[in-house]
Amino acid sequence: MKNYLIIKRTLDLLISIVAFIIFSPVFIIIFIILFLLNDGKPFFFQERPGKDEKVFNIIKFKTMNDKKDNHGEFLPFEDRVTKIGHFIRKYSLDEIPQLLNVIKGDMSIIGPRPLLTQYLPLYNHEQKKRHNVKPGITGWAQVKGRNSILWKQKFAYDIYYINNISFGLDMKILLLTVKRVIIPEGINNKNGLNMPTFTGDNEE
Prior knowledge:
mainly alpha; two-stranded parallel sheet; 4 strands; single chain; two-stranded antiparallel ribbon; 44% helix
């Protein structure tokens, strides 16, 4: 596994640089559209835990507005996703800027998706293993169901990946990701394209 992880970093750099060049026209177009629609704020930055729980700033295209209620709290997710944001999320175009995270070394192309830092104290011993490797733009859980599966199953897929990481599995995930982008599926529309909040469990 250690030998492959060294090769994996080289592959991450090559793939992310080539992909960024290929998608640069799409990147520029979305950047301009969101810059105009989001008052000069085309990007969304948020702290996420990476390998060994080291926190970094993930970068995505901003697909939601900043509308708040009378108490100063953000409106529900489904009320903040813009029309263009819905389209961008449906085809995972909001993930393109994360290629910069990969180039920087915070993330990998393939790996468990980086979740919210507030979840860190809630993981059980087994779930914490998802931080043994760098988080990815896409992963085994994403190609097996994205946000239409329960948290327990999502973590099970993450741990499966950790225990079976290999070049072959990464290539399989990459090909399935391309398929999911072309034919979007595994999205929970009822919950506004977003996973419910993880509240933890006592399973070991």
